[in-house]
């Protein structure tokens, strides 16, 4: 049997980018904070460009601890949702038309979230990457880390548990 | 709440750009306790299908309220910073209602302040979220 011809790279990118933009673009709070996601294959990096409205202590000045927590939480939930969607994006089970219309399956819900503050967030751009450490049928665990100028000196990290969406068959 | 404390509380919140961006209003402060309310706003929605506020906005509210509680404690001389904060999300906040948080600094040492907080909407008996945190004690 002849090998299936690989899909053109631009079609693959188009579908992946549409999935990411459906996941992120539809959430008002993510837009409010100005968070964007950079994608390399299946790897995501969250980006929080600095803005005056993110300041918590105007005398230092420093990014609000709540903004840091929210940034970590958004990064964690998007990473987990992305990992859940990935196979369906790749197989084409979720169509490009659905993605462009913003139609997505149900997403996980946060059960709890813990954040450790290692340094104060400086008034400049921040980045975050999350890692799904366990993805079960009902629960998932995610770890997430945020840094600014120097990746080796993270300013905060978080750990979260999520309740997985019920499958349609259940 | 005394006139002077109330004035201080108002200035405290007004000086935080992000608290203003979220529309936070400090309704009570003193003796290690604080209460802050955040109005419902469509721009803070986390799930557009249901209109429920994003957990991150609740975290920001909890963090601010816990910090305010620490600063209002008689044994806390100056500023404070969050060491860690854990939030349990018990249920989604009802869309359209403001979220109120009540925080209490229940123990303080020379270096660390221990705080717990609760987030409520219109149903006082059924909290939306609870938080436990530790904060630094500065300027001593």
From TrEMBL, chain A:
It comes from the Bacteria. Gene3D superfamilies: Hotdog Thioesterase (3.10.129.10). Residues 63-162 form the Acyl-CoA thioesterase-like N-terminal HotDog domain. Pfam families: 4HBT_3. This is Acyl-CoA thioesterase-like N-terminal HotDog domain-containing protein. It comes from Planktotalea frisia. InterPro entries: HotDog_dom_sf, TesB_ACOT8-like_N. CDD domains: PaaI_thioesterase.
From TrEMBL, chain B:
One of its GO terms (molecular function) is 1,4-dihydroxy-2-naphthoyl-CoA thioesterase activity. Residues 51-125 form the Thioesterase domain. The keyword Hydrolase applies. It comes from the Bacteria. InterPro entries: HotDog_dom_sf, PAAI_dom, Thioestr_dom. GO terms for cellular component: cytosol. Keywords: Hydrolase. It holds the Pfam family 4HBT. This is Thioesterase domain-containing protein.
């Amino acid at each position: 049997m002849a090998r299936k011809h690989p899909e053109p790279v631009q079609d693959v990118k188009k579908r992946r980018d549409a999935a990411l933009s459906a996941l992120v673009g539809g959430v008002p709070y993510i837009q409010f904070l100005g968070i964007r996601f950079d994608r390399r294959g299946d790897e995501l990096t969250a980006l929080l460009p600095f803005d005056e409205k993110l300041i918590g202590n105007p005398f230092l000045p420093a990014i609000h601890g709540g903004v840091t927590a929210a940034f970590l939480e958004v990064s964690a939930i998007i990473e987990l949702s992305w990992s859940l969607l990935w196979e369906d994006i790749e197989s084409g089970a979720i169509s490009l038309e659905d993605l462009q219309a913003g139609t997505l399956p149900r997403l996980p819900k946060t059960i709890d979230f813990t954040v450790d503050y290692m340094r104060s967030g400086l008034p400049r751009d921040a980045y975050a990457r999350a890692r799904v450490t366990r993805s079960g049928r009902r629960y998932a665990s995610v770890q997430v880390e945020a840094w600014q100028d120097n990746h080796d000196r993270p300013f905060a990290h978080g750990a979260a548990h999520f309740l997985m969406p019920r499958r349609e068959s259940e | 709440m005394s006139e002077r404390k109330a004035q201080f509380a108002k200035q405290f919140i007004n000086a935080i750009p992000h608290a203003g961006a979220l529309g936070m209003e400090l309704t009570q402060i003193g003796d290690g306790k604080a209460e802050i309310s955040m109005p419902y706003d469509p721009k803070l929605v986390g799930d557009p299908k249901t209109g429920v506020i994003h957990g991150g906005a609740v975290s920001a509210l909890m963090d601010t309220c816990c910090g305010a509680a620490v600063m209002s404690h008689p044994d806390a001389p100056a500023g404070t910073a969050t060491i860690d904060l854990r939030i349990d999300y018990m249920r989604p906040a009802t869309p359209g209602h403001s979220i109120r948080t009540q925080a209490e600094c229940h123990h303080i040492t020379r270096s660390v302040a221990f705080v717990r907080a609760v987030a409520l909407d219109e149903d006082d008996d059924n909290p939306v979220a609870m938080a436990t945190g530790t904060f630094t004690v500065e300027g001593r």
